[in-house]
Each structure stands twice: as C-alpha cells, then as structure tokens.
Amino acid sequence: ETGVTQTPRHLVMGMTNKKSLKCEQHLGHNAMYWYKQSAKKPLELMFVYNFKEQTENNSVPSRFSPECPNSSHLFLHLHTLQPEDSALYLCASSHGGGGAVETQYFGPGTRLLVL
Amino acid sequence: GQQLNQSPQSMFIQEGEDVSMNCTSSSIFNTWLWYKQDPGEGPVLLIALYKAGELTSNGRLTAQFGITRKDSFLNISASIPSDVGIYFCAGQRGWAGNNRKLIWGLGTSLAVNP
C-alpha cells in the first residue's frame, strides 16, 4: 500500500451515531491534516498534527475529535453530527518539521452523509 | 478565512484545445501549488512553484509563478478527455507560523468534449 489511504470511503450516519474516520500514510511524513470539502467552498483546514502533536485546531466544533497515535495514523472521531457536516473529509500528509514548503499529499477522502 | 481568486470557475472545451486558468491573491506568496481532483478522489499534486517568474512543466501542463508573487497560471495543451476534473490552486505565504498554512482557491471545473 502506498501514499495516503482513508477508510471508509463512504459513510452514512444518523445524528446520534458515533463513528470514526481513519487515515494512514505510507510516505514517511511527520505532519498529517484533516480537511473538510464542501460544494462551493474552498478546502477548510480542520486539524494539523506535527510529530503526533496537535498544532492547529481551526475552531472546529467539539463533535469532531481528532486522534493521532503515531506519525502514520490519524483518526477523526465523529459524535452527534449535524446534517450540515455532510461533506468530503480529506486527510493529507507532508514532511513536516517546519522551515520548508509543506507540499501536501491527499488521500481519496471519506464521503460523509449525516441524516 | 482567506481564499484565492481562481478563474474561470468552469470551462467546457473541445478535445485538442488548449486551456488556461489562473489564480490571484491580494497577498504575496512564496509558493504556489496546482492540484487536480478527479470525481470521488482526493486532490493530486500536479506542479509546485517556489520562485517568482518560475515556469515549470509536467507533460502537457505548464504552470508559472507570477512576477508580482500575487498570481499563478496553469496551462494545459492539447486537452484530452482524461483532463476532466477540478483544478485547484493553493499558495503559501511564508515559512513560519500562520503563514505556512496553505490557502486554497475554489477550483476550476474542466469538461472536455471528445
């Protein structure tokens, strides 16, 4: 397996459900990202982890909870979501470490529908 | 949050035609990236630009880092059906702190008629 993988690719959940999105990168990178992609909007950065430490939280509601157990894995735990949270959730990774261009490599995304 | 102005918003062209799209910002950037996103997939990096005036090619794709450092251009020559997708620009203003965050355009949706 190469690059950045995400599971599941599609997810339908009710507003009271709890689910988790998983991302794994096989690029030897140290930084990982969660983005939300909605129609007619630019990519919205949600969370950034650098060497397993969360370095950015862009005012994301607490119903989204990230977890980064190591530099290769990133999770997004979902709880009590709203219909407006329906979107494509993209994971990305980059070399990290600061002082350089952070060219990001993306996974295929998880298409989430909240009913 | 800040976003880049990307145009055109969409294009519908005939196979074999050349395509031009651009991205502008009110701020100076030190890096420009161009990505393509196919339906149901994540964005894939096409070209990265690091220096004002830089012109870089990747097959039939050519991108330029504008001299003012506030814009970038992507050209596709002799388009083919597999060029269909959404093309995104992204820029980075600096190396430290909040300037390292990528700023994204809304994308240019390209359709190619065979």
Give a verbal description of the structure:
The complex is a heterodimer of chains A (115) and B (114). With 115 residues, chain A is mainly beta. Chain A is 0% helix and 56% strand. In chain A, strands 2, 4, 5, 6, 9, 10 and 11 form a 7-stranded mixed beta sheet that branches. The termini of chain A are far apart. The mean pLDDT of chain A is 91. Chain B has 114 residues and is an all-beta fold. Chain B is 0% helix and 51% strand. Chain B has strands at 5-7, 10-14, 19-24, 31-37, 44-49, 55-58, 61-65, 71-76, 85-92, 103-104, 108-113. In chain B, the strands form 2 sheets. In chain B, strands 2, 4, 5, 9, 10 and 11 form a 6-stranded mixed beta sheet that branches. In chain B, a hairpin with a 6-residue loop joins strand 4 (31-37) and strand 5 (44-49).
Summarize the structure in short.
The complex is a heterodimer of chains A (115) and B (114). Chain A has 115 residues and is mainly beta.
> What is the terminal-to-terminal distance of chain A?
33 Å
Query: How many beta strands in the DSSP annotation of chain B?
Result: 11
In N-to-C order, the SSE pattern of chain A is EEEEEEEEEEE
β content of chain A, as a range? Answer: over 45%
How do the SSEs of chain B run, as a string of H and E? Answer: EEEEEEEEEEE
Over the alpha carbons, how many angstroms does the gyration radius of chain A reach?
13 Å
How far is it from the N-terminal to the C-terminal residue of chain B, by CA?
Answer: 38 Å
The helix fraction of chain A, in percent, is under 10%
User: What integer is the average pLDDT of chain A?
Assistant: 91
Number of E strands of chain A: 11
Content of β-strand of chain B: over 45%
Q: Number of helix segments of chain B?
A: 0
Q: What characterizes the major β-sheet of chain B?
A: 6 strands, mixed
Q: Outline of chain B, from the CA principal axes?
A: globular
Poorly predicted ranges of chain B: none
Oligomeric form:
heterodimer
Quick one: which chains have the greatest interface? Answer: A-B, 26 and 26 residues
Structural class of chain B: mainly beta
- SS element count, helices of chain A: 0
| Helix content range of chain B | under 10%
Unreliable stretches covering 5 or more consecutive residues of chain A = none
